Amino acid sequence: MKEGQNKTGDMPVEEFRKYGYQVVDWIADYLKNVEKYPVLSQINPGDVKSKIPAQPPQQGESFDKIIKDVDEIIMPGITHWNHPNFMAYFNSTSSAPGILAEMFSAALNVNGMLWKTSPSVTELEEASLNWFRQMLGFPEAFWGIIYDTASVSSMHAIAAAREQVSQFLFRKKGMAGRAEVPRLRLYCTEHSHSSIDKGAIAMGIGVEGIRKIPVDNQFRMIPEELEKAIKEDKAEGWFPFCTVATVGTTSSTSIDPVDEIGDICTRENIWFHVDGAYGGIAAVLPEMRHIFKGIEKADSIVVNPHKWMFTPIDLSVFFTKKPEILKRAFSLVAEYLKTQEGETVQNYMDYGVQLGRRFRSLKLWFIIRYFGVEGIQNRIQEHLDLAKNLKVEIEKDKTFEIMAPMPFSVICFRFHPEQLSDEKSIDEINEKLMSEVNATGELFISHTKLNNKLVLRIAISGIRTEKRHVDQAWKLIQTKAKELI
Ligand SMILES: *Cc1c(COP(=O)(O)O)cnc(C)c1O
Fold first, then answer.
1. Could you tell me where the DSSP H helices lie in 51-95?
2. How many degrees, rounded to 5, is the angle at CA 247 between CA 244 and CA 253?
3. Pocket of ligand 1, candidates 151, 190, 256: which has the most ligand atoms within 8 Å of its Cβ, to mutate?
4. Which residue out of 81, 292, 307, 409 has the highest number of ligand 1 atoms within 8 Å of its CB and is therefore the one to mutate?
5. How far is the CA of 151 from the centre of ligand 1 (A)?
6. Which residue from 131, 312, 319, 368 has the fewest beta carbons nearer than 10 Å?
7. What is the spatial order of strands in the sheet that 453-459 belongs to?
8. What separation in Å is there between the alpha carbon of 469 and the centre of ligand 1?
9. Strand order in the sheet with 316-320
10. Which atom of ligand 1 is nearest to the CA of 148?
């Protein structure tokens, strides 16, 4: 037994106090100095693993040594999502109140599977999601639950959609080997997130059960095409059961017309899920509520506070008007989990695949309280403004072009010097530009394909991103681009 160690083997409380302060100091320094790190980790595959012994230590090690290895082994392999110049994908940054909430959550270590197993977990989730729902302007009819990620939220939407088709008794009889059951069809677009396809695969719909509806020139689902597809499918014996619209698609942040798609789904009695994992947060601004016009027609919605609301990953919010269908899909109460409270409380384990649940609502509650609705609105507005201004700057430089409309704070653009005219060379020079920019460690941007063209993306959604970072990013891109011609 190490000196000072108590009988349980855990760290003695006084030692915890000492290291606790030390870790908080470490975190504070990290947040203060995050800009000094290269945004994108500069290491090679295998570098981290090669520094970790292949066998676990037989004897316990000192905490000093463990912390030292965080600095020496782990930190070089970190890509800094918290860095103000992380402008790739959709940035997700953590804020101080969120970090502190995670400390409470780990310390309390409660499991909110049942109301009874920690009433505060269930009741704070209910209360904070009620706040969050109001902040986004969603009707009261929407009930909420927290899952880890949007991928899992959408998978549960598809599970509920399948359960809604009650006549086939999928829960009881399964889907395979049943000649009397038609093939189910789910509709989305090629711009929907891959998690929709994965969710459909997980739910037994099959890749062929996913039909991608054509989009217009702004990458939005064309409602008339959806209507046509449903009609065609029905004539061919498919059973349309679910449509997914996206508010803020992953490539270009386009917005599918929720209102019109909602009408079609209502008429056809098809489950209507809206994926607003990133873009949905913008609805905290009343002027942005138009993105969800017609949302009352949706059966379910996903919005991720861990993307654009400064919440440490992971925290995804799923809303549905039909929690009873979700419950019907999953509720399975073993004898040892039966409690006396009955219908007076809700047990979140009934609404999904997982039993154990972390105390995630704590961080949502901390963040909403610490920032206040106005504080969150101000940050989101700032990001929208920064992106608008940068777009103007990009437009001024005739060697660049904007490649998609910009409803939120993600700019899709590319370098297109007049010397180059064939698409292949333009793709190549943009790929080169991106890798050179990212190799500097000063900025991290990503790419996508739109209409078969390689397009660069700058996403401005980090809490630490200010005007000077955006200016610096643009200057770097311009400098590197000039060097390429
Ligand atoms: C990021 C994103 C997802 C996936 O989110 P996870 O929480 O990482 O699963 C799904 N849909 C959209 C539109 C997204 O932007």
1. 63-69
2. 120
3. 151
4. 307
5. 6
6. 131
7. 400-402, 410-415, 453-459, 446-450
8. 25
9. 143-147, 316-320, 300-303, 271-275, 239-246, 184-188, 210-212
10. 7
pLDDT tens for each residue of 368-387: 999 999 999 999 999 999 99
Q: Ligand 1 center to residue 154 CA distance, Å? A: 9
Q: Which of 158, 247, 300, 304 to mutate to test the pocket of ligand 1 (most atoms within 8 A of CB)?
A: 304
Full-model pTM: 0.96
Handedness of CA 60, 64, 68, 71 (dihedral sign): positive
Domain limits, the chain? 111-358, 368-484
Pocket test for ligand 1, best of 278, 306, 317, 318 (most atoms within 8 A of CB): 278
Query: Ligand 1: which residues within 6 Å by Cβ?
Result: 90, 149-151, 193, 195, 246, 248, 250, 275, 277-278, 304, 316
Q: What is the pLDDT of residues 416-450, one digit of tens each?
A: 999 999 999 999 999 999 999 999 999 999 999 99
Please name the amino acid found at residue 18: K
Fold of 368-484: Aspartate Aminotransferase, domain 1 (3.90.1150)
pLDDT band at 460 (very low <50, low <70, confident <90, very high): very high
For residue 307, which atom of ligand 1 is closest to its CA? 1
Percent of the chain's residues with pLDDT above 70: 99
pLDDT at 4 exceeding the cut of 90: no
Strands 453-459 and 410-415, by their bridges, are antiparallel
Atom of ligand 1 nearest to the CA of 316: 7
Tokens encoding 376: 């969150």
Q: Is residue 1 predicted with pLDDT exceeding 50? A: no
Cβ 241 vs Cβ 223: under 8 Å:
no
Average pLDDT on 278-289 reads: 98
Give yes or no for a cis peptide into 64 (omega within 30° of 0).
no
- Looking at the CA of residue 153, tell me the nearest atom of ligand 1: 9
Atom 5 (ligand 1) nearest CA:
150
pLDDT tops 90 at residue 2: no
Contact predicate 318/156, CB 8 Å: yes
What integer is the mean pLDDT of 89-112? 96
Q: Alpha carbon 26 to chain centroid distance?
A: 27
Residue given tokens 């649940």 in the structure block: 357
pLDDT score at 3: 54
Reply yes or no on whether the pLDDT at 396 is more than 90.
yes
Checking if the pLDDT of 178 tops 60, the result is: yes
